[in-house]
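Fold this sequence, please.
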Amino acid sequence: MSMRALLLMVLALGAAPLQAGEPDPLQSVMWEHHHRNLLGGQAYVFDPQVRVELPPFAEDARQVPVLVDARALGDEVVRIEAWADLNPIPRIFTFVPGDEVLPLVAIRIRVEQATPVRAAVLTRDGVWHVGGAKVDAAGGGCTAPSVVRAQPGWEDRLGQVLGGRFPRGEASRLRMQVAHPMDNGLVGGIPEFFLNQAELRDADGQPLATMELYPAVAENPTLSLELKHDQPAQLWLRDNNGNEFEAAF
């Protein structure tokens, strides 16, 4: 019997979940480290239902598109953690979808070198479902000088949100870009200055989903989220200097 089958049997019997102990399909030297530090060493299973899509090669290591799709796990999703194994600052985001938001996130990140990119999805039974993919890269995306800071008047555009709403059957997808340098502190003389909190809110200001962002996110970050229904939504953001920004969709 496979370890995954054993894990599912134990859960079905109501016992405490066991760590699956499967070999890492991406064969990363950092898997055990991130399992301990980001997932708390908790029970996990490598699960193809958690899709991580990104290009096989990063043409621009400062702007690498990543899609994390856990819709196959449905309403069992509690939280999603995403990270790049070999980045100097590995964490990308923590996402907590509410009842009206699907467990899907598209975002752009920086990568410093070729690396596995992972998403771990915590389900209601306390097990992390882990998916991932590798991206090759020439490198240097995390330590390259900011393009945003070289543009005249970037301070005047700080926090501006461009975006739109697109129907997806009964659902609707929000696609947004936020003007922000997302400084990660790895470029000499420039301290950390990045968006670190986001909330998708309903028309009454109540949270539909919450998100924590980290400096691995690309400058002028793009973000896509998907609502289950075509309802009004607002995006609220805050950076680590306390600046707040809002946009309605």
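Residues 1-19 have pLDDT under 50 and may be disordered. Residues 3-12 form the longest helix (10 residues).
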